[in-house]
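Per reviewer request, we include the raw input and output of the structure prediction for the construct analysed in the revised manuscript.
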Amino acid sequence: MRYKILFLFLILGLGCQKATSEKEAWAELEKESVDEHFKQGEKSLKLAEQFLKFSQEFPASPNAPKALLKSAQLCDAHRLTKTAIERYQEVVQRFPNSEEAAQASFLVGFAYSNVLGDTTEARKAYEQFLKNYPESDLVPSARLELLTMGKSLDDLFKPDSLASQ
């Protein structure tokens, strides 16, 4: 009987241990983020910090740029735009050759233009994106953003508005 109780505690104890490896930590974060990504609540802000921490604790992991990008996107969803921009820029600085870097670079310009209304910084960010990631699928979107930046809908729908650019 004593062995059965000891065995039960051993099983429960192992099951309650925190994830220690990079793969376990990533799997745990992915599981938590499925429903939380678009929720506006304290839990998703905590998740943003957990993704940031993952990227710092496992910088060599192939999931590190994904984690940092998700952290930035969660901040963005909470209208923490300046924090999101800092994290997008960190993705580009720390992981410049990752797929996530191109997306993060584009999102810097998007946040400056469409959330903060800072067309000067947005233009710089989009131009940097086009220079660094000319093969990205987001290039047409960046070019369109540059073309339409600062224009009203009325200006955009004038017959020769876009044609004259």
